[in-house]
Amino acid sequence: MDAKEKIILALDVNSREEALELVRIFRNFVSMFKVGLRLFVACGPNLVKEIIGQGNKVFLDLKFNDTPKTVGEATKEASMLGVEMFTVHASAGISAMKEAVANKGNSKLLITTVLTSLSDNHLNPRNTTRYILGEITQQKVRHFSEDAVYVGADGITCSPQDLKMLEFHMGHESFRRLLKVTPGICETNDLPSGQKRTMTAREAILDGADYLVLSRVITETKVGSPMNALLRITAEISSVERRTN
C-alpha cells in the first residue's frame, strides 16, 4: 500500500469553506478525510455529500453510542451518505454493534475502543479509564476489541500504544483481519493537544497500524507549513514500508 493510502486527514474545522479548502490542498496526498463531531454539527450531512461528490473518501467519526435501534438507524443513514468508514463506540454494547453490522451497507464499521484522551494517570483519578469504564486502559481496549471481532466489525480505532498489546493477546487471524485505525499521531517531541497516549507515525506503522488519523500535527505544525509536515510524515511511513517489504 502506498504511504498516502495510510493517511486520513481530520477536518477539525467548523466551516464549509475551511473544510473544502483543506480538501482542495491535500486531496492528492491522503487516502481520505475525517469528518468528526465539530464539523458535522456545524455543517451537517450535506457537506459530507459534497466532499464525497468531489471524488473523495470520508471517514465519518461520530462514535455512535445509543440504543441498538437508534445506532442501527444512524448507521443506515451514514451508509446512505456513501461514507467509506464510520465509528460506533463499543460502550454502546453488543446489541448496538450488531445493529450497526446489519445496517452498514458498503461502508466499513470501526469500533471505537478507548479514547486517546483517557489514560491511567493516577494524578487525576476521576479522569482515568478505570474510573470511567471500570478497567485499566489496555484491559478495556482488549475487551472492546474482542467485542469488535465477535460482532463482525471491519476494524477498530485505538491508541497506537495499544497495538503491540493487542497483537500479543489477540494474534489470531480474526483479529489480524481487523483494520487498525489510530489517532494520537505526533511528531518527535511534540504532544498533540488533548491526547495522552500518542506515538510517532513510524512507531505506529511498525506496531501494525493500517491507517493514521492526522489532525493538529499537520494543521498546527510548529515546523514549516502544514504541507511540509504531511510530507515529513509520509516519508516516515514510506521508510517503514520499504524496510518491511
Tell me about this structure.
With 245 residues, this protein is α/β, with parallel strands linked by helices. It has one domain (3-244): TIM Barrel. The protein has helices at residues 16-26, 37-43, 45-53, 68-81, 94-103, 129-133, 137-151, 163-169, 173-176, 201-206, 216-219, 226-244; strands spanning 7-10, 32-36, 58-64, 85-89, 108-112, 155-157, 179-182, 211-214. Helix 4 links the parallel strand 3 (58-64) and strand 4 (85-89). The longest helix has 19 residues, at 226-244. The mean pLDDT is 91.
CATH class: Alpha Beta
The average pLDDT value, as a whole number, equals 91
Uncertain segments of ≥5 residues (pLDDT<50)? none
| CATH H-level homologous superfamily name | Aldolase class I
Tell me about the largest β-sheet: 8 strands, parallel, barrel
| Overall body shape | globular
**Helix content bin:** 40-55%
Number of domains: 1
Number of helices: 12
Query: What's the end-to-end separation, in Å?
Result: 10 Å
**Beta content:** 15-25%
**What is the alpha-carbon Rg in Å?**
17 Å
Architecture, according to CATH? Answer: Alpha-Beta Barrel
Q: How would you spell out the order of helices and strands?
A: EHEHHEHEHEHHEHHEHEHH
**What name does CATH use for the topology?**
TIM Barrel
* Spatial order of strands in the largest sheet: 1-2-3-4-5-6-7-8
- Backbone structural class: alpha/beta
Total number of strands: 8
Binding site for substrate: 12, 34, 116, 195, 216
Keywords: Decarboxylase, Lyase, Pyrimidine biosynthesis
Protein name: Orotidine 5'-phosphate decarboxylase
EC number: 4.1.1.23
